[in-house]
Design brief:
Elements: E1 5-9, E2 14-17, E3 21-31, E4 39-40, E5 43-44, E6 51-59, E7 62-70
Antiparallel strand pairs: 1-3, 2-3, 3-7, 4-5, 6-7
Length: 79
């Protein structure tokens, strides 16, 4: 088995909303660097004008994953 750390959540996801964007923020621990794939109802949520995914290194093996959704497309969250 290869060395590394299986991806795991460091806490509960956080959802923040401004007038124009809703953002889901998830802190994770992983090694090697994770790649993130978002989907809903078996359909990909791609990086387009209404949805943007980003990954930020926090040092060590810690990362924050963000999913930004334009508010006029908030139905994607279905929460």
């Amino acid at each position: 088995m290869p060395d590394g750390i299986a991806p795991s959540f460091l806490g509960k996801p956080v959802i923040k909303q401004t007038a124009k964007t809703a953002t889901i923020q998830i802190d994770i621990l992983a090694d090697p660097n994770p790649s993130v794939h978002w989907s809903k109802d078996a359909k990909d949520l791609l990086n387009v004008d209404k949805i943007v995914s980003r990954l930020e290194s926090k040092g060590g093996n810690k990362y924050t994953v963000y999913l930004d959704i334009k508010v006029n497309h908030i139905e994607i969250l279905n929460i």
